[in-house]
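hiii so um. not sure if this is the right channel but i have a protein structure encoded as tokens and i wanna go backwards to a sequence. like what aa goes where. can anyone help
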């Protein structure tokens, strides 16, 4: 094994995977940037993540190779970045890649001046050129020679490229209207795959926030068939190999049109968002399939992705023994070996395992040729046997860092599942994970850190950390009606507005106090995850409705205005921001519940949680939290506490009903 490089002291599993490369890697930071400046060497920046298949390939081919290492160590300052740990750096150079090449991906390879101005960008590069693809060795040799003979030319290229990114453009005023929502829903109808579900050809990504937007359209009677499109897609994703029928949980995306062959890595954020989508589908339809899938996702999270202290790990790899998907595929002989001949044949027939194979001469268990029904108890027992067998068959790498933003998403999922399904274990998991974030990813002054691993935390929190945790706090408040969660949500959004606001509207990804990058990224697009700007818009709208405070209303309107160009040209690309917009432009309700005793809050959360009411803001007042709620939502002071029992005050479309003690009456009015 090679002598360890500087990455050996890092927390990130991705960086640690490269800690014994012969390349003299630096983590991103002052030391590396200063070395490049002092020695006048170009920077070789490599960005990836620990469960990235092609990152593994490039490491084995090139970064473990002494010849490549010699070239890099002699002529460059080499920096490794974990995109999950530093999404701000990744966002900057991915934007450069997309502007110059029309695409991007990981590993992302950037070569730039000591001033961080890029003059080459690419993705995976083989060591030697092949099939008209440049090789890394040729590239390094050519750039090293050019840097020595004519550095001004490369510097000038870096300057020209950098001029494309002068900063955030001025936001144009944009009227907030229903037409934006209708346009987005119509776009999904146009792109809908009525055979296999989803909204694109291969590759297909789950994008659960899009499905949640369409379910909101259904509830508000927007479009012709939003719920039908959602249900078809949810069932198709479950039936295919995208869903791990043996171990639970979903892979990152499908490489084919029918959801059979996934890119096998599993990400925490995908499973958090999908758990929310299936939970909400269950609330709306009552179909047990969606409840069952939610339970299977959360069972997977509990037994494979939860740390002993209640946080959540980030991802599981696609590769086993150097082969993508090997862990997840089976032959019929293996199934019969574990289950016996009779049960094995039944299982193979149900889950489409054949001698010829359905994926590269082997098989991905799936239900595409079957119905979408949940397995019966006998089949469930066989799935458990295969799960136990699979655990011992091959090793599967896990990225065991805990990221604040992704952990917060999982808190949201557990909190929503608790309200909808009534399982006490889900509430405990949500509150325990919140306590984990509070204990390990929060500084003494209340500011957030980015990641935690093996007893150490690091990284100055980014927009996503603040916005996603505020969302988690709002979900926890709705699940417990404990005022400290609402207080923390308000505090987090106060900090976000102070630390990330742009003069022209919207929120930067990196903080005001962070080290300057080539430019400050500002992300609006809802990709695999919603953007921090979309989540912030949602949280600001919810705080405005729940507290009645004008400062949140003003901030929410300003935040939505920043989406003006997206609302005009690509509204279906910012669906969580559209969900926030819908709170403004469609009928909404505010419900104040006053209770004589604090013990009634838990029962109320479950009774209100068994049906979907996304346009309703709820606050609960008891004697115990009267003072705190009065500070957060001054309007609540006008609602008297009853001597016993409970009273409900519902306001709809800025018009208030008479108070009632009937929760069933409230339910009917909300669902009208």
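sure thing!! here u go:
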């Amino acid at each position: 094994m090679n002598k360890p490089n500087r990455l050996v002291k890092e927390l990130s599993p991705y960086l640690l995977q490269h800690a014994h490369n012969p390349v003299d890697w630096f983590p991103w930071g002052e030391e590396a940037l200063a070395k490049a400046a002092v020695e006048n060497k170009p920077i070789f920046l490599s960005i990836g993540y620990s469960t990235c298949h092609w990152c593994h390939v490039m490491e084995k081919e090139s970064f473990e190779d002494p010849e490549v290492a010699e070239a890099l160590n002699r002529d460059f300052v080499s920096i490794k970045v974990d995109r999950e740990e530093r999404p701000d750096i990744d966002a900057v150079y991915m934007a450069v890649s997309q502007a110059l090449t029309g695409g991007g991906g990981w590993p992302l390879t950037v070569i730039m001046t000591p001033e961080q101005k890029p003059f080459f960008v690419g993705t995976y590069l083989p060591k030697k050129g092949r099939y008209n693809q440049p090789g890394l060795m040729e590239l390094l040799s050519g750039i090293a020679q050019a840097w020595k003979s004519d550095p001004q030319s490369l510097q000038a290229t870096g300057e020209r490229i950098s001029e494309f990114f002068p900063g955030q453009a001025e936001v144009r005023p944009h009227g907030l209207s229903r037409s934006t929502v209708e346009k987005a829903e119509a776009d999904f109808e146009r792109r809908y795959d009525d055979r296999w579900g989803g909204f694109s050809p291969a590759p297909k990504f789950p994008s659960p926030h899009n499905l949640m937007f369409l379910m909101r359209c259904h509830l508000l009677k927007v479009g012709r068939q939003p719920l039908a499109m959602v249900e078809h897609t949810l069932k198709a994703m479950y039936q295919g190999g995208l869903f791990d029928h043996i171990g639970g949980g979903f892979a990152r995306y499908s490489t084919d049109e029918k959801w059979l062959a996934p890119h096998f890595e599993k990400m925490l954020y995908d499973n958090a968002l999908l758990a929310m989508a299936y939970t909400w589908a269950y609330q709306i339809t009552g179909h047990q399939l969606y409840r069952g899938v939610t339970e299977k996702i959360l069972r997977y999270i509990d037994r494979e992705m939860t740390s002993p202290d209640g946080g959540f790990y980030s991802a599981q790899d696609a590769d086993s023994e150097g082969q993508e998907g090997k862990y997840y595929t089976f032959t019929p002989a293996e199934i019969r070996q574990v289950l016996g001949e009779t049960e094995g044949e039944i299982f193979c027939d149900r889950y489409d395992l054949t001698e010829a194979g359905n994926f590269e001469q082997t098989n991905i268990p799936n239900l595409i040729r079957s119905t979408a029904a949940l397995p019966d108890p006998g089949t469930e027992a066989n799935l458990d046997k295969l799960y136990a067998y699979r655990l011992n068959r091959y090793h599967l790498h896990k990225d065991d860092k805990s990221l604040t933003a992704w952990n917060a998403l999982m808190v949201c999922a557990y909190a929503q599942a608790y309200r909808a399904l009534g399982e006490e274990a889900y509430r405990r998991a949500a509150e325990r994970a919140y306590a984990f974030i509070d204990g390990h990813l929060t500084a003494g002054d209340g500011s957030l850190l980015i990641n935690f691993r093996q007893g150490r935390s690091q990284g100055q929190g980014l927009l996503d950390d603040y916005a996603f945790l505020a969302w988690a706090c709002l979900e926890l408040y709705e699940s417990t009606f404990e005022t400290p969660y609402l207080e923390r949500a308000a505090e987090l959004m106060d900090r976000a507005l102070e630390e990330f606001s742009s003069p022209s509207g919207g929120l930067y990804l990196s903080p005001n106090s962070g080290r300057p990058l080539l430019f400050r990224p500002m992300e609006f697009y809802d990709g695999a995850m919603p953007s921090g700007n979309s989540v912030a818009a949602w949280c600001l709208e919810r705080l405005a409705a729940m507290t009645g405070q004008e400062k949140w209303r003003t901030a929410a309107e300003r935040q939505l205005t920043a989406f003006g160009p997206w609302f005009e040209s690509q509204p279906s690309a910012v669906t969580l921001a559209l969900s926030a917009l819908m709170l403004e432009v469609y009928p909404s309700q505010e419900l104040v519940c006053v209770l004589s005793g604090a013990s009634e809050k838990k029962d109320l959360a479950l009774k209100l949680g068994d049906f979907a009411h996304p346009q309703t803001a709820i606050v609960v007042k008891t004697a115990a939290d009267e003072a705190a709620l009065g500070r957060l939502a001054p309007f609540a002071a006008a609602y008297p506490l009853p001597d016993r029992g409970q009273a409900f005050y519902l306001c709809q479309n800025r018009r208030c009903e008479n108070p009632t003690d009937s929760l069933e009456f409230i339910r009917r009015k909300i669902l009208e």
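oh and Residues 138 and 245 are 45 Å apart (CA to CA).
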